C-alpha cells in the first residue's frame, strides 16, 4: 500500500506495478510507453475499470385487465461493456515515481535531452532544458 497518493502500487495483469498515470487516453499511453521503454522501464498497460453503472429502472408489475393478466415486458438484455477508452499505465520497477523521475532529472528523451515537466505533460513537443526553471521568472 502506498504511503501517499504520489507513489501508488497496483496489480496490473497480475504483475505488481508502480502506477505512472490512471485514466489516460490511448494517445497519452503511446507517448508514455515510448518514453518509459526508452528509459529501460518495463511498461504494463491495462484498461481502466468502467465506471459503476446506474441502478436499473424498476420493472413494472403485470397489468391486470379483467380476468386476463398481461405479462410485463421483458427487460432488455444487458449490453456488453464497451472497450475501455481510458487506461492505467504502470511500470514493474516499484521504486519508480513520476514526480521524482521528472524533477530528479532521471528521464531522457530519444535525442538525449532531459525530460522537463512541460515535455512530460505534452505541452512542448521538444524538451528544452537549457533554461533552469528558477531563471524563467527573472
Estimated radius of gyration: 24 Å
What's the total helix number?
3
Q: Which range best describes the helical content: under 10%, 10-25%, 25-40%, 40-55%, 55-70% or over 70%?
A: 10-25%
- The best one-word shape is elongated
Mind explaining what this structure looks like?
The protein is of the alpha+beta class and 138 residues long. The chain has a domain at 1-50 and 84-127. The protein is built from three helices and six strands; from the N terminus they run ββαββββαα. It has helices spanning 26-38, 98-103, 117-120, and strands at residues 9-12, 15-24, 43-47, 63-65, 68-70, 87-91. The strands form two sheets. Strands 1-2-6-3 form a four-stranded antiparallel β-sheet, with helices on one face. A two-stranded antiparallel sheet has the order 4-5. It is elongated. It starts with 8 loop residues before the first strand and ends in an 18-residue tail after the last helix. The model has no long low-confidence stretch (mean pLDDT 81).
Amino acid at each position: 500500500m502506498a504511503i501517499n497518493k504520489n507513489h501508488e502500487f497496483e496489480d496490473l495483469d497480475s504483475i505488481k506495478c508502480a502506477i505512472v498515470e490512471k485514466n489516460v487516453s490511448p494517445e497519452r499511453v503511446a507517448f508514455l510507453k515510448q518514453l518509459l521503454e526508452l528509459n529501460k522501464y518495463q511498461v504494463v498497460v491495462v484498461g481502466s475499470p468502467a465506471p459503476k453503472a446506474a441502478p436499473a429502472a424498476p420493472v413494472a408489475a403485470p397489468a391486470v385487465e379483467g380476468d386476463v393478466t398481461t405479462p410485463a415486458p421483458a427487460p432488455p438484455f444487458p449490453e456488453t461493456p464497451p472497450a475501455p477508452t481510458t487506461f492505467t499505465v504502470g511500470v514493474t520497477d516499484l521504486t519508480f515515481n513520476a514526480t521524482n523521475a521528472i524533477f530528479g532529472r532521471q528521464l531522457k528523451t530519444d535525442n538525449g535531452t532531459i525530460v522537463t515537466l512541460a515535455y512530460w505533460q505534452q505541452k512542448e513537443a521538444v524538451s528544452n532544458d537549457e533554461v533552469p526553471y528558477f531563471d524563467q521568472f527573472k
